[in-house]
Structures are given as C-alpha cells and as structure tokens.
User: Fold this.
Amino acid sequence: MWSTFSELLGHLTLSSILDIFLVALIFYGLFYFVQGTRAVTLLRGTVVVILLAIMASSVFQLTAFNWLVRNSLPALFVAIPVIFQPELRRALERLGRPGMLLTRRNASAAQIINTIVRAASQLSEQGFGALMVLERTTGLQDFVDTGVLLDAHLSDDLLRAIFFKNSALHDGAVIIREDRIVAAACMLPLSENDALARDLGTRHRAALGVTEGTDAIAVVVSEETGQIAVAHNGRLVRHLDEGELGRLLFRLYEPHTTLTRAARTEKKAQ
Assistant:
C-alpha cells in the first residue's frame, strides 16, 4: 500500500495538484450553496439510491439491472441542473453579491431564541397575533418567495412592528434564518389533519402545515387568546409561558453552526 501511495505521489505535478484543487473547490462550492435548502435532502436521497444500485448490480451480478443503471446515469446527470434549478439560480445570485464570500454570522442559538421569546411574550401581552418560523436544515426558500423580502437583522422590536395590527405585513408568517428575518407575510401550507382541535385558527394550522413537511420550528401567538404555542414535526405544544417557551426552543433548535462558548455559558445561566 505504501509503495503504491509513493508511486502516486511521484506522478503528482503542479498541474495535477491544481486540477485536484479546482475539482475540490467546485464540489465545496456546490455543497456550500445548497446547505440549508431542501435540495440537500433530495441530493442525499439521490446519492443513496445510486450507491445502492451500483452495489446491488456488482455484488449479485445482475446483468440487466447493471445495464439499466449504467445507461441511466448520463440521463440523471442531465436532469440534475433541472431538478436543482432554483438552488443553482440562488447560488449564482449569492455569488454575485459584493462581499458575500467574506460574510460570516456569529449569532448564537441563545441570542436567537431569547429574541424570539421576548418578542412572543410582548406580542402575547399586547394581544397581537404572530407566526414566526425558524428555518433549520430544510430550506424554506419556496415559502420565502411568497412573501415580502426583508433580509433584516433579527430583533424583538422589528418582530413587534411587523405583527402590529395595522402593519401591512402582519398577515402571514415571518421566516427566520439564523440571525436574519428573511421575509414577512409569507404564505404557508395549511395542515390537513382532521384530528386537530376545532378552536385552532389559520395561524396554528399553517404552523403545523410547514412543520409537517420540513424540520422547521413555528412559534404561534394567538390573536384571540394571547396564548403561545410551538409547532414542530407536525405536533403542537400549546399554553406556554415565557419560561416554558424558552426551554422548549432550546431543546428543539439546533443552529447550522456549533454553539460558541459564550452561548453555552448564557444557556447554562438560564
């Protein structure tokens, strides 16, 4: 093994190293731009199916199946740009933004959750209805495109302003991506679960609907009762106070990046 490895190293040239680096950079860029979107789940499923098909055809010597897999792969590579067309378009748009590659967000999960909790508590006290959706690993860009793009820094003041009764954006959902309010007045699919309580309104059904098809977390404030609820994985937890809301969100929410030491300290302090 070592002799083979040494022989390979002996054939490496500056051109070969540059070639490998460029290929790695392309794959890194593709994975970077599709992270946080529903394309990740689709891509993962596609890779699993291809690997299983190749293993099955090789191990069991399935001639006909092997022919089908071998002739289907070129068509699959042609179909990939069509399947991932929205993600590729957004990736090129992001790449063209000035300073995009240098941008890095350092907001901790504790800061994000504390802002959501404060906003929900204040909206509940003021009698304003609200629907806030926290994006996790499954992208919500399809729903973002139905609303008004904001791309604003997350703050409880802004959330209260959005859901003020006379605000033009108070209807619909706010979608939060890390420490940014991506869009407001977004339309979400309503849950079709017939077993839901009859006193649940459109906001609660929309919160359940978006969490049935994604891993998002939805925080709902009832305009009629002021009660706070959280939807996750198609389930609804109701009648939460400020402390219960914070503890539940800490258990459910996992940011794309690891919590910093400061975030862990702040979390323990609560």
